[in-house]
Design a protein that fits this description.
Layout (H helix, E strand, L loop, with lengths): L1 H8 L15 H26 L1 E9 L6 E10 L8 E6 L4 E2 L5 E7 L5 E6 L3 H9 L10 H27 L3 E11 L3 E6 L5 H8 L9 E7 L14 E3 L6 E15 L5 E15 L9 E8 L2 E9 L2 H42 L1
Parallel strand pairs: 11-13, 11-14
Antiparallel strand pairs: 1-14, 2-7, 2-9, 3-4, 3-8, 5-6, 5-7, 8-13, 9-10, 11-12
Helix pairs in contact: 2-6, 4-5
C-alpha cells in the first residue's frame, strides 16, 4: 500500500469528482476556439515538415571532357529564315559552320504565326561549295569553275528575290534547338554572316538596314531544376532606329541538383551582362546577336533535405501544449470576468 500511495503522489494529472466540475458556455466557446487553432497549427506544421528545403555547397569543378548543352529559342521578327545562320566558336579553335546538332527554324508571318519549318543548314558551307573555293584546283578545272559560278549566280539571284519578297511580307524567324559544344569558353551567334557579302549587300543595301531585333524565349545551359531562374528568358530587344550588334557576356556556373530521392541532375546556371554596339552606314561589319560564355571554376551543389521527425514532434508538442495552456488561461479569465459582472446584479436583485 505504501508503494501505491507513493506512485499516486507522482500523478501530475489529478482527477476531480464529477459533481465538482462545472461546465460553462464561455468554456465551450474557448474550447472550440482552441481546437480550431490547434487543428490549423497542426496542418501547417505537418505541411512544413513534409516540404523540402535546399542546402547550397560550393567546391572546385573537376569535370573534364564533357559537352555543354545550350538550349536556344529565339525569335527574329524582322529577318526571314533564309538569311539567318548559327555559328559556334570556342577557345580550342573549333569553328562550327556546318552544324550537325538539332537546330530548327520556323518561318513566321508578320503576326508571329508559323507558316513553315526547315532544318537549319549553314549557308556558309553552301556558298563555299557554290564558289568552289579550293586552293589546289588545277588550270584544267577552270571551265567547271565557270559553270559553278554561273550556277551560283542563278541561285543567288533566286535567293535575293525570295528574301526581298519575305522582307516585304514582314516575315520573321524563330530559331530553336540544342547546341552541344565543348566545355570550354566560346561563343555562338545568330546573324546574316552566312550570306555572301555581295548577296547580303544586294538584299539589305547596307549593314545598317539589317534589323536584328529579337525575343529570347529560352536560353539555358542544361535541364531546369526547381527554383532556377534563367536571366535572359523573356528578354525582348526591338530596334526602332539604326541597327547594331548585341553581345551577351555570360558567366556559367556548373550546378548539380540532388533531389530528396538521391537522384542527381547535372546542369548549369548563369549570370549575364549585356552590351549593344550601334552600326552606321559606313561600317563593314554586319549586325549580329552574340552569346559569349565562360565557365566558372567553382561548381555549386544544391541538395534537397527534409526536417527530422524528432524536430516535427518537438514543434508539434510545443504548439499544441502552448495552445492548450493559453486557452486554459483565457477560460479562467473569462469565467472570473463573467462572475464579477453577474454577481453584483444577482445581489441587487435579491435585495
Amino acid at each position: 500500500m505504501g508503494l501505491m500511495q507513493a506512485l499516486k503522489g507522482l500523478d501530475a494529472f489529478p482527477r476531480a469528482e464529477e459533481h465538482l466540475l462545472q461546465k460553462t458556455k464561455s468554456g465551450a466557446f474557448v474550447s472550440i476556439f482552441g481546437l480550431v487553432i490547434m487543428a490549423t497549427l497542426f496542418f501547417h506544421e505537418l505541411t512544413y515538415y513534409l516540404s523540402t528545403y535546399t542546402v547550397h555547397q560550393m567546391e572546385v569543378d573537376l569535370k573534364r571532357g564533357e559537352t555543354l548543352p545550350i538550349h536556344i529559342n529565339v525569335t527574329f521578327p524582322s529577318l526571314p529564315c533564309d538569311v539567318l545562320s548559327v555559328d559556334a566558336i570556342d577557345m580550342s579553335g573549333k569553328h562550327e559552320v556546318d552544324l550537325d546538332t538539332n537546330i530548327w527554324k520556323l518561318r513566321l508571318n508578320n503576326d508571329g504565326q508559323i507558316i513553315g519549318t526547315e532544318y537549319l543548314s549553314d549557308l556558309v558551307e553552301k556558298e563555299h561549295a557554290a564558289h568552289g573555293h579550293d586552293d589546289h584546283k588545277t588550270h584544267h578545272e577552270d571551265s567547271d569553275h565557270k559553270v559553278e559560278l554561273h550556277s551560283f549566280d542563278k541561285e543567288a539571284e533566286n535567293l535575293i528575290k525570295k528574301v526581298k519578297q519575305a522582307l516585304a511580307n514582314g516575315e520573321g524567324c524563330r530559331v530553336y534547338g540544342v547546341l552541344d559544344v565543348q566545355r570550354v569558353a566560346g561563343n555562338f551567334h545568330i546573324s546574316v554572316h552566312g550570306l555572301n557579302i555581295f548577296v547580303a549587300q544586294m538584299i539589305f543595301e547596307g549593314s545598317s538596314h539589317v534589323n536584328v531585333s529579337h525575343i529570347i524565349h529560352d536560353l539555358s545551359f542544361g535541364p531546369k531544376y526547381p527554383g532556377i531562374h534563367n536571366p535572359l528568358d523573356g528578354t525582348m530587344r526591338i530596334l526602332r532606329g539604326a541597327s547594331g550588334t548585341f553581345k551577351y557576356y555570360i558567366k556559367i556556373v556548373p550546378t548539380e541538383y540532388k533531389y530528396i530521392s538521391k537522384e542527381v541532375l547535372p546542369t548549369n546556371q548563369f549570370s549575364v551582362t549585356e552590351y549593344f554596339s550601334p552600326i552606321n552606314e559606313f561600317d563593314r561589319k554586319w549586325p549580329a546577336v552574340y552569346f559569349l560564355y565562360d565557365l566558372s571554376p567553382i561548381t555549386v551543389t544544391i541538395r534537397e533535405e527534409r526536417r527530422s521527425f524528432l524536430h516535427f514532434i518537438t514543434r508539434l508538442c510545443a504548439i499544441l501544449g502552448g495552445t492548450f495552456a493559453l486557452t486554459g488561461m483565457l477560460d479562467r479569465w473569462m469565467y472570473r470576468f463573467i462572475e464579477a459582472v453577474t454577481k453584483p446584479n444577482a445581489r441587487s436583485f435579491s435585495r
